[in-house]
Every structure is written in C-alpha cells, then in structure tokens.
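Practice problem: predict the structure.
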Amino acid sequence: MVQATIQGNKKGRPRVQGSQTAIPCWFMRGGTSKGPFFRADDLPQDQPSRDAILLAAMGSPDPRQIDGVGGAAPLTSKAGIVDVSERDGVDLEFRFAQLQPDSDVVDLTPNCGNMLAAVVPFALESGLLTAHDDTTTARVLTLNTGLVAEITVPTPAGESGRYVEYAGHTRIDGVPGAAAPISINFLDTAGSVCSSLLPTGNVRDRVDVPGIGPVEVTCIDNGQPLVIVAAAPLGRTGYESTAALNGDQDLKSRLEVLRLACGELMGLGDVTGRNYPKMTLVSPPAQGGAINTRSFIPHVCHDSIGVLAAVTAATACVIEGTVAHDVARVGSGPRIQVSVEHPAGEFSIELGLDPVNPQRVIKSALLRTARLIMAGDVFVPCRIWNPDAASPKEEHS
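Answer:
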C-alpha cells in the first residue's frame, strides 16, 4: 500500500432474484475503453463459470450484443475483475477480460492500459480501498501478463469524506471533454506476453506476403505484442481514415497473413483465435508528433490506439534499426517524450532510458482519465450461474 488502506469486500453480494442472478457491477470508462468491473469475490472461482457470466453480461456472441451491456465493438467489449492482493509490494490484482461481440471466447492473455486506468477508481468506489490523502496511489498487478503499474488518482476531501474526483482539465484524444488526470507509471513492461522485448531476436524481420512479396516488420512487446509495418510497402499512406481501413478487405486479408506468420516468429504459436499480436501501420508524423499510426485490434482498425500499444510503438521509435525508427522523429537523452499520432489525435508517452544502454526502456509514464458511469447489479440467467447452488469452495462468506 502506498497511500490507501485495504478495505476488503464488504458491500453487497450476488443474489438470486427470480430467474436471474444479480451481481454487483460498476460500469467504468477507462481511457478510450469501457466495460463492467467486478470484485473477484463476487464471481465464481472456476474460469468456465466466470467466462459464462462475462459472456452473458456482455451479450456475446451477437454482433449487436443486444442482450447485454456490450457496445458492439472490441473497445466496448471489455471487462475488469479486481481483488486486493496479499503479495508484497502489490495493493491490487487486476484481471482483464477481452471479449468480442460475435465470439464466445473470453481472452485473458492480453493487457489493456485503458481499462487499467479505471482499476484504482473502481477499487475506491467498490470499497476495496479507502483513501486517506488528496491523491491515492496504489500498485496494481495485471494478472494476465505480470505487468505492474503505480497508479495515482485524485481523492479530495468532501463533506462526507474523501471521494474520487472525475472532473478536471486533462484531455485525451478519443474521449470528449476533459476529466481529472490519472497517472500511470509502468514498471518493467518488456516481454509482457512474449519472451522478451524483441521476441524474434531481431530489430526487424522480412516476411513474405502473397501478392506483395517480402515485407519488413518489427516484432516487439513492451506491454503489448505488436507487429509494426510501414504503410507504404503495403500500398497505403497510413493516413487513411478508420472507416476506409475497416472497409479495405484486401489490406485486412494481407495483414492477417502477416499477423499469423509473425505470431509464429514471436513464439506465440498459432494466433488465429487470439487478439494479439496487434498490427500497427506506421508512417511519418503529419501533425508535429513523433510517428503516425493505424492500429488493428487485431482485425478492426482502432479509432485511436491502445495505451500499451502506444507505449510499445513509442519504444520502437527509439530503438535504432526498427521499422518505426525509420520514419519517426524523436529526440535524445535519458527521458524522451514521444507523441504517437493516431486517427483521433495523439498520445504522449514519456520514456525513461537506461543510461548504460540507451535502447533499453526502464520506465513508461503517461496520463489517462476514467469515470464511473453506472453502479448497481448486472443480471445473468440463473442457468448461467446460481450462487445459492455454488459448491462450498465457491460460497461467499
């Protein structure tokens, strides 16, 4: 614990209500994503039951997610599960779940830096933490990949005690308006899913793509496994709109061939059914930033760019020899600000470099915002989960 007290899970429990089960849920926006958050103790421990609940809550599989709270897009088909931690040096444990509108798969392998921004606000709102100062800092472990981050949120004093401040002047592209800043300091994100920062052992590789020929790529993972490829060799500028790229079936087919091949090169095996690696087209900056990007997650072009995808793309910018470095415009020194341009604007990352090895990133810091949208219960059919019929191991005290 840094500036908060572990409160424990004492408020509300899952309960049967007629033919449905009501599960306490806090619907949060984190960065440019949103979805339901749950306390770990409010869900069953076994993964199949938990996955079934998440699918039912989101309304997947269905392209419109009409029978759930999902938003019919990958960015709004996400969920978070949070618990207090008994590990030394860690306050909270976060399990991120990526769902898809038209799939029955719950992917627990990737990170999501946007949803991560909502973890500490959620923990405070749901009673897992109690604030004691004007800001609350907690160290969060993402169980999916072992990533650890220190997250700081404003918690001023009000008439009835301290509260999470959501109003502020921080703007992030991809989110309308302004909100209070949430500072995220990532601690050692290299090789979050892959074996290392450069899992192929190379700063660039050549991969054959049917109809194009050899294409040079950089396979990199500094929080998110990415395949970075210059847009020009694929016959694109990299400045196309999201809608244009999502309608470009020829490009998406070629990117998928490239993604599958790179997945094998990165030691990830057959990634056909996985959400990573994500494909990132890069080109020279157009708005005064360091690099321009178009990110696919993995088959839909992102309206902006994910937090950890931006961190990884920024890292590639400062490593000589990468595809990104070829087109990037970055400064030098132990601390470098990298502005990553995307369809909705830009995303600034501050990288701290190892003074002994300037190509090794030892710190990644950024600002996000979050907001509590709704708190209450999400309902799933009792046939999906009935807590009254849970085994003794799964019963809630």
